[in-house]
User: Which sequence fits this backbone?
């Protein structure tokens, strides 16, 4: 299981984050170039960069959750004994799992609702942009389950 999670997050997800980050950077550079050098700026770069930024942030948050790079307040957490800390950690992971499940469910609902709506400039279905919600939810669930299983494995020895 850990090997599969490693491949999914560290290979596949990080690759997509790099590709989307590159697309985001290139479209912003192209937009700046077209505004300064050319008389008529490209209109499609603004919408593509906005969609890329949204995908970049959501996928990046899933990757950060997997790597435990997300923000947390651990001052009060460190005041407890290790057994209580494990219970708090399990509770937090269960909340993250619930949040990921809600992202999947309501993300699918939103994707279905926006399947006929087209974006203003690129004319692509808005469901493509909103599909990041259930995708991120799946990654949140995978990361949370992985953390729960890892902590159980460490506790057993």
Assistant:
């Amino acid at each position: 299981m850990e090997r599969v999670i490693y491949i999914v997050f560290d290979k596949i997800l990080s690759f997509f984050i790099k590709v989307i980050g590159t697309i985001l950077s290139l479209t912003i550079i192209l937009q700046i170039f077209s505004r300064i050098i050319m008389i008529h700026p490209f209109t499609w770069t603004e919408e593509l960069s906005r969609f890329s930024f949204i995908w970049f942030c959501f996928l990046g948050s899933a990757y950060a959750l997997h790597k435990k790079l997300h923000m947390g307040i651990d001052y009060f957490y460190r005041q407890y004994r290790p057994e209580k800390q494990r219970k708090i950690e399990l509770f937090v992971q269960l909340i993250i799992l619930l949040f990921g499940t809600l992202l999947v469910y309501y993300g699918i609902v939103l994707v279905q609702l926006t399947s006929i709506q087209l974006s203003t400039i690129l004319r692509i279905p808005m469901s493509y942009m909103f599909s990041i919600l259930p995708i991120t939810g799946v990654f949140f669930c995978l990361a949370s389950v992985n953390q729960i299983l890892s902590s159980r494995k460490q506790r057993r020895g």
Notes: Helices lie at 2-36, 44-66, 82-113, 126-130, 132-156. The mean pLDDT is 92.
